[in-house]
Amino acid sequence: MAGGVVHFEIPADDEDRARDFYSSAFGWEMNPLPDMSYTLIMTTPVDDTGMPSAAGSINGGMFRREGEMAAPVVTVDVEDIDAALAKIAAVGGSVFRGKMEVPGMGWNAYFKDSEGNIVGLWQNAEPGPAVSPDAAANDIGA
């Protein structure tokens, strides 16, 4: 479903400390991807397609806090990132980081909203059932 929040990301100054904190506080499973300097965060079980099996739940990721990427980020599913970025610019937002391919899974981008918040976008590689960034990241980490 386009327009839904499908992923979250948490920046961290000390990624080991942050992984320990969230896994201890909430029991979240942490899967570091050292080659990507990224950690997959599993907050809820997933089904065979990698989608969260509990309705309304999402999984996420963690990255090193740098520059303007200093606050948690939510990611919104869109059908066409290029069209979404154009519309965002037309209504007062701006592109923060343009479209980037996640090979075999889809594309992501970041924009700034009218209030200066950084928000993510996700577009699936193929039409059909949604493949959340969580599922894409699971496949990368597998």
Plain-language structure description:
This protein has an eight-stranded mixed sheet with strand order 2-3-4-1-5-8-7-6, with helices on both faces. The protein has about 140 residues and is of the alpha+beta class. The model has no long low-confidence stretch (mean pLDDT about 90). Helix content is about 20%, strand content about 35%. The protein is globular. A hairpin with a 5-residue loop joins strand 7 (about 105-110) and strand 8 (about 120-125). The chain has one domain (about 5-140): 2,3-Dihydroxybiphenyl 1,2-Dioxygenase, domain 1, CATH 3.10.180.10. It starts with a strand and ends with a helix. It has three helices and eight strands.
Please give the structural blueprint:
Elements: E1 5-12, H1 15-26, E2 29-33, E3 38-42, E4 60-64, E5 73-77, H2 81-90, E6 94-102, E7 106-112, E8 118-124, H3 133-141
Parallel strand pairs: 1-4, 5-8
Antiparallel strand pairs: 1-5, 2-3, 3-4, 6-7, 7-8
Shape: globular
Q: Tell me the Rg in angstroms.
A: 15 Å
Percent of residues in beta strands? 35-45%
How many domain units? Answer: 1
Oligomeric assembly = single chain
State the end-to-end CA separation: 25 Å
